[in-house]
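User: Here's a protein and a ligand (zinc ion). What would the complex look like?
Assistant: Let me lay out the input and then the predicted complex.
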Amino acid sequence: MKIQNIDAYQIYDSRGFPTLEVELELENGIKACGLVPSGASTGQFEALELRDGDMKRFRGKSVFKAIANVREEIAPALMGKSVFEQRANDELMIALDGTENKSRLGANAILGVSMAMAKAAAIARDQALFEYLGNGEGNLIPLNEIQILGGGAHAGWATDIQDFLVIAVGAKSYEETLEITHNIYHAAGELMKKLGKCVGIADEGGWWPDYKNNEEPFEVLLEAIKMAGYEPGRDVAISLDIAASDLYDGTNYSFKLEGKTFSPDEFYDLMAAWCNKYPIISIEDPFADTDFNNWKRFQKEFGSKVQIIGDDLFTTNIKRIEQGIEQELANSVLIKLNQIGSVSETLDAINVTQQAGWLPVVSARSGETEDAFICHLAVATNAGQLKVGSFARSERQVKWNENLRIQRKLGAKARFLGAELYRKILRLD
Ligand code: PGA
Ligand code: ZN
């Protein structure tokens, strides 16, 4: 089944920023699209998202060069190739780009084609995308990590911490995780509005808070969990994305909200104190992507109690993940397609993570689209966890809803492990 045509055009993400949609057509007329997401608190080791930088067009954010690269370079190179050769075709695009970080053609250009190719291939095989990507082996419905309050780069630095999230560790089914999260999200919103602490909605759909320090949100979270009728720690645990690379200047960490500066040792002590004080099951990027000493020390002290996720630390890059495994820097990897820029490399990143006995968490970006590719990726690989922002706004809900459809399609074959999956890395008792 040969690729007959590839086209790209500009569409707009959940922030209204330009991104590209790639449409790929097969010789029998089957067509599929890949929609490319975009981050705001991006890691320095990510593959490059090519933007035009022309301030007269979309304030520098248009992607017309990436679109031209799809039409003029990638399309001619892939014309006539088999759509089922995902890996060979991805490698061809990577070689055509010729740079370490996909900066010539753009990771956004390459990823859009790569995603559209996988989807078209699935249709051609008459399979759901998760079946095609997982060779029929994927059947694990993920446990959700859902944002209640947004901060950092996603909420004008209302808090220095980027995400305050919950994980419904007591849930026995995927549906129950959604019900629990729905109840907590709305309880938190009511509580914050009553106290005059809610300014609006942050980029990923969570509440945009107005607090004086970074610890007050914990109290709201705990209160909201209880108000909704759940026991913190038993039914619902707290999860954080510190996004600490954004707080680090190469020497120290700082909280702008509180006007405080921390040495790496002091910041370590703060992260440790929070993990001891609050029912935290998962923490992402507690330290900067270059502060390996702290990562190592933290994994040693908390790695059997808390899921420690590297996002900016690893940027879905196989070499960086392998280095992290070797040096025992964490026990989990955040997986984002556009950090590395192709479907094959993303599958490899998940595989390397799982082979080491670590847990992958498949993730959306803060700038999302109506594409639910990541749900299929998570189920295909039995990744077990999904992070998509909050429980509001359609670019988020399209993912939570797609999991329901995948579960229906799987029928009796669908599995849900919930928090049991943490037993692979944590001592839960
Ligand atoms: P980003 O945020 O998409 O803006 O990078 C998500 C995250 O940090 O996990
Ligand atoms: Zn992150």
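Summary: Residues 39-42, 162, 241, 243, 311, 363, 365-366 surround 2-phosphoglycolic acid (ligand 1) (CB under 6 Å).
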